[in-house]
Design goal:
It is a single chain. 29% of the residues lie in helices and 30% in strands. The protein binds guanosine-5',3'-tetraphosphate (G4P).
């Protein structure tokens, strides 16, 4: 292989940053994403992403939109360039769109940006998404948003990150005042201040300073805020964690940035620091050992499948994360599970709103593949070899329903639908040990709605879903499984691979079972 091609691939890998923004609804993810896209010139006006989001409010609307547009307003990857970097932001839907896909998408990210509302602190959905990132050990960068509002003190927020999420933090910048008093942020790394100008906070001025004691800050922010800043930074310098890049990369220390997305305040410095610190695409584990992005043979894996809701177009889009080599439109690759060569025609890439046909893509990029029903979540594709990437984890469902078919004569189609939709990862299926009933498990309500809709439209089967009171699923590993132990506020079931799983109605029942069965292991993800 010639050196020039390697160098070209190296340059492409080096400049890529692929990440997801994790947050609780309303923390400002749409606003922040929009500002980032504006910096990259990927959209021209503020409001474009917002408009898209407004379309997504109710599930019924979502179905209607899917129908109109063909596929996938809900699934998106946004790509743009900034300062010589190629950035891929993976969308992690929240609200009604929250589903197991949201978790699976995180497996395709090399880093996460955790967005937190300064007043609300760490919220429920953030905790769930954080756990998935922490499990993978990817670096997590924190952006504390809405600094123009009254909120908790930065020290309280740092404490909360440690108490609730168990992660230490290192502030990269520090607010000068907060809420109505907010006059700027002091950048500890670049020793510069970013100051709001004018009462309406309409302009932002960036000024290089000696350090936080620089009289320029006093002049611009006033004596009171200046003194406060000096005290805070002195305390941080003495008692805070030092910046340790290795710990950041291992996900043990999160760099914190303060800002206000809606005012575009602190966003640019955040982006620039983030791009410097976030990792480029890393090697991934496979049956053939670690696969380096610089491997000259293309490889990748499918992490999400988005079905078309339009009955006239039953095709789907499989989202592929490129792991190594160069992807080219029309190339032939090995579909490892099926053991066949396939041609990747009509690949699509996802920009802010419109989908483009991709000609080439590189490690870190996400490509949408036209899927006539040949892909499953976790499938590996590779050029010329049979490597299989690590299986994607199965996440613990939180909502459960018993499913039955309304018309018994349709049992065959019903079974086919369940099998296929389970394989696609639309829902998880469990069978009770005692009565062989079928229980579906999901992470978000939307998954049930999609399941019902697709069973009817693709398999012609009306199903009945009856909600069950369970809230937790734990895979149980023990020498001898005894169903009689799990009768009160719990039940024993099997997943589709035959693993035993206990469903619990509440945390108390789960804790009690764990305490009473010290020899058993209860796992949050499938073994
Ligand atoms: P999400 O995607 O995380 O759900 O949040 P989104 O960006 O939609 O933001 C939620 C609300 O928070 C929006 O207000 C948005 O304008 C506001 N917001 C975002 N960033 C900031 C900030 O830095 N400061 C303040 N004060 N507000 C912020 P909304 O009233 O729901 O919508 P809109 O009418 O303002 O668009």
């Amino acid at each position: 292989m010639s050196k020039t091609i390697d160098q070209a691939l190296q340059n492409e890998v080096d400049k890529r940053r692929t990440f997801a923004i994790i947050s609780h609804p309303d923390a400002g993810k749409t606003t922040l994403t929009e500002k980032l896209l504006l910096f990259g010139g990927a959209i021209r006006e503020a409001g474009s992403v917002k408009a898209r989001k407004a379309n997504k409010h109710a599930t019924s609307d979502w179905m209607a939109i899917e129908k109109q547009r063909g596929i996938s307003v809900t699934s998106s990857v946004m790509q743009f360039d900034y300062n010589g970097h190629r950035i891929n932001i993976l969308d992690t839907p929240g609200h009604q769109d929250f589903s197991e896909d949201t978790y699976r998408t995180l497996t395709a990210a090399d880093a996460a940006v955790m967005l937190i509302d300064v007043a609300k602190g760490v919220e429920a959905q953030t905790i769930k998404l954080f756990k998935v990132c922490a499990q993978r050990g990817i670096p997590i960068f924190t952006f504390i948003n809405k600094l123009d509002r009254e909120g908790q003190s930065p020290f309280e927020l740092m404490e909360e990150l440690e108490q609730v999420l168990g992660i230490r933090s290192v502030p990269m910048n520090w607010p000068i005042g907060m809420g109505r008093e907010l006059s700027g942020v002091y950048d500890r790394m670049k020793t510069q201040v970013e100051l709001f100008n004018g009462k309406d906070h309409s302009t932002i001025e960036v000024q290089k300073v000696e350090d936080y004691r620089d009289p320029i800050i006093k002049e611009m922010a006033g004596e009171f805020l200046y003194d406060q800043l000096c005290q805070d930074i002195e305390l941080l310098d003495v008692a805070g964690d030092p910046f340790d890049y290795d710990k950041v990369l291992r996900g043990e220390l999160t760099p914190i940035f303060f800002g206000s997305a809606v005012n575009n305040f602190g966003v640019q410095t955040f982006l620039e620091n983030f791009l410097e610190l976030a990792p480029k695409p890393e090697p991934r584990r496979s049956t053939a050992g670690m696969i380096d992005p610089m491997n000259d043979k293309f490889s990748g894996y499918v992490f999400k499948i988005q079905a078309n809701m339009n009955p006239a177009h039953r095709d789907r889009i499989a989202f592929l994360r490129v792991v190594s080599g160069k992807f080219e439109r029309g190339m032939s690759v090995r579909h490892v599970r099926v053991g066949k060569e396939i041609k990747l025609a009509q690949p699509q890439q996802f920009l802010a709103q419109d989908r483009d046909i991709v000609q080439t893509a590189y490690p870190g990029d996400i490509v949408g593949l036209f899927d006539p029903g040949i892909f499953r979540i976790g499938d590996s594709l590779s050029q010329g070899s049979d490597i299989i990437f690590d299986e994607l984890p199965t996440f613990s469902p939180e909502i459960f329903a018993k499913v039955t078919v309304k018309n018994a004569l349709k049992h065959k189609q019903y079974q086919k639908g369940i099998d296929q939709l389970t394989e696609e990862g639309t829902i998880q299926v469990f069978n009770t040990v005692s009565f062989d009933e079928t229980i579906l498990g999901v992470v978000g309500q939307l998954q049930f709605e999609v399941f019902e809709y697709r069973m009817k439209n693709e398999y012609g089967v009306d199903v009945q879903l009856q909600r069950m009171p369970f809230q937790f699923a734990r895979w149980i590993i023990t020498d001898k499984v005894d169903a009689s132990k799990f009768r009160i506020n719990s039940t024993l079931v099997k997943d589709k691979k035959g693993n035993h799983v206990v469903l619990f109605e509440n945390e108390y029942a789960m804790r009690t079972a764990i305490d009473k069965n010290p020899d058993a292991q209860f796992l949050e993800m499938a073994p």
